[in-house]
Amino acid sequence: MLATAAPTWVSSTVSTALESEVPVAVTGTAASPAVGAAALVVVAAGVALAIAGRVARWVALAVVALSGALAAASALGILLDPVPAATSGASSAEGVTDLTSAVAVSVWPWLTLVAGVLVVGAAVLAAAGAPGWGSTSGRHERVTPAVPQRSAAAGASPTGADGAGRGQDRPRPAGDDGSDPHDPHDAWDALTRGTDPSEDR
Prior knowledge:
By secondary structure, the protein is mainly alpha-helical. It has a domain at 2-132. It has helices at 2-5, 28-31, 33-51, 54-80, 83-94, 108-128, 152-155, 184-192; strands spanning 8-14, 22-27, 104-105. It has a three-stranded antiparallel beta sheet with strand order 2-1-3. Helix 3 runs antiparallel to helix 4 and helix 4 runs antiparallel to helix 6. It is elongated. 22% of the residues are buried.
């Protein structure tokens, strides 16, 4: 509807002190400011429909329907009586209100009327399909990954054939006295006895 409100809707001519005939063209936004406002509201409500929740979607649909009806009614008002819009446009542009020719209406108010009716129809159809609405996407929500819990049975290593080759079940090499030569406690005890623990390695 923004595209149909920008062009000239009505045109006529006026007479001024300098010229006997001055053309006057009035755009849709000037002839009916409600059309431009309704179009902006429809765009905003359309964006809200894509990201809002279920209740907010109902509100957005109602706003879309009302905006479409407002735009259609405004365009219909211009089509039924374009003279006030042309007179207001002449007063704003030239400072006079006496029109010297008939008011011509372009096709754009008709297109705005059709667009407004289509917007209302689309809102009604969307409301009819409301039971099938899905929830909003959660792809942007942060999900904490589940950490698998290891059971005591899974953590224990078998000592049979299944446990062969696992580091925790491999026997460590023992020294001459059966102790681990890499054990720091045994090395400390050897030093206190005056023995160099590295001689046996």
